[in-house]
Amino acid sequence: MAEAHQAVAFQFTVTPDGIDLQLSREVLKHIYLSGVTSWKKRAIRFKNGVLTGVYPASPSSWLIVVIAIMSTMYARIDPSRGMIDRIKTSLPVRNHSNILIYYECWKQFCCLIYLMNKRLKRTYLESVRPLLDDEQYKQMETVANDFKKDPAPKFQKHLKLKSWWATNYVSDWWEEYIYLRGRDPIMVNSNFYTMDLLYVIPTHRQAARAGNVVHAMLQYRRKLERGELTPLRALGIVPMCSFQYERMFNTTRIPGIETDFVQHLKDRKHLVVYHRGRFFKVWLYYGGRHLWPSELELQFQRILDDKSEPQPGELKLPSLTAGNRVPWARARLKYFTEGINQASLEAIETAAFFLTLDDEAHGYDPENIRSLDLYAKSLLHGKCYDRWFDKSFTLIVYKNGKIGVNTEHSWADSPIIGHMWEYVLATDCFQLGYTAEGHCKGDINKSLATPTRLQWDIPKACQEIIESSYMIAKGIANDVDFHGCLFNEFGKGLIKKCRTSPDAFIQLALQLAHYRDKGEFCLTYESSMTRMFREGRTETVRSCTCESTAFVRAMEDESTTVRAIYLQTQPRAADKHQNMYRLAMTGAGIDRHLFCLYIVSKVMGIDSPFLKQVLSEPWRLSTSQTPQQQLNLIDIQKFPKYVGAGGGFGPVADDGYGVSYIIVGENLITFHISSKFSSPETDSFRFGQNIRQAMLDIRALFNLKEKM
Question: Where do transmembrane segments lie in this chain (predicted)?
Fold first, then answer.
């Protein structure tokens, strides 16, 4: 994580006996800018609300209607000729008690959050206790208490001020300092991937699959722009913030010397396609409408049939987005700000999204145990030069019809792209469909203008920078040790019968697997969403707890009875995890708060040993659950083969594991495990086997208990 820049603090004291108001001018500047950004967003939302609220009419036409209605009211004329009165008398009296019930439920939910925040407030010291011996813990306790006395109150004043002024006191700093200020490559280190359906390939025709999927994405974008997507609700009651969806399309991360920025544009009418080292611009509209799937298939087939060769420097040009950010930013300023290079780069950066027609075949093969591994690595980094890692997302379509997505992380988190992906897969398979020959349905309009090749004039000096970025990216990609593990011995259905949360069950299995793998516990990260708050993103659930470590030790101690494990350690560990997850989701986590305190300390130029230690601790086990069935468009009970394979991310620590998992239906859990070949301490395949055995051992615990 990039540190906040140092600044000279300005302090003002009213009187020695009066109120001590010590505020940093530089921090106030940051807070002011955050607030300005928030109010700009509010103004844009208000404008969009007005426009979408009168859709499909224009605001001016509705103004005419309002004037006409006001005129009839003034003249006491009934333009409906008595129809409105007849409708009112024929309609039954509406029972408004449901509205009161919903209001009371909402009040009780807010009270519940408040009580949880007050009574179940967990502390940083509690979270690190299982990882420290008595002496280390005593030292950490001293450092934490010193921080609590001073300077924590100073930092907290600024955060309170920001919370009053800005929409969200965390999210803008999180985006800037965690993502955009990072100067290391975003490929593998930041971007993540999402896979296709696990068992099904609807068509093996590459151009046809691309045609249907792109058309489905355009349908989704139209619904998004018109505000027609139903907001997701936590617990079926509380609507979650949809802010992150706004930048899904027409968005690119632009490199800078010190920091990048996210460029989001209005409706874009083209996309850029990469195939065998060439870039093509494809228009998505014809006669004021989206191209039909069959028309898109024709355009993509034209690209596949094109036999032209890449221009000098064109083949590996996307590797600029895979390497270090500063060389890419400088190259962009020097070689891509004029002429055909500027025009071609602008076409990429202003495209709706980026599409790669890959010349490889990937997907899950039951007869090849490493098939998911190769599929994941291809989606995560590819050849290091065939994805535009700066686009909000790159759609990858393989030559066998399999698909996937590589997503840039700064603009949103995985549930957002997952929402769109569920819609696309369901629309592709169950609404659009294919002919018996595997082509897109519909007529073919051969009068469409052919896709346009983007032109480049890349000098030798720039080609050397491209090659340097490629070599850096290739080194990162070659070091990724990945394993995809399909666990189908049991799933969510059986776990629930054990009266345990599926997520808590899996997290305990991960703790047990890690202990068996390395013989020790480690700081563990599980991502939790905070979208019940406006512009909320994520919070950390620290899954390694005193309760979970006690459970693992009991499982590994042969002298501990099954009854003791089941009745004492397992329920406590599972309940603890569930409580922590609820706290994180409802804004009572600790890590984002500590992060913001750290940013304030750096801006104020006040060194904090406590915060420095907290923010430097490595997450050697980083985990995340991929959400499933957000839209419920596919009945997986009726169509069990149409299940998603989830997605994953690269390793977070050099000597640690990254684990993403998706609970699919009632009888399948898919694990995506990443680590680094360069670490002698890790082995992704070995860890996958440890997870499998840990899951079975915990299940056996419940089996033995049932026989007692």
Answer: 60-77
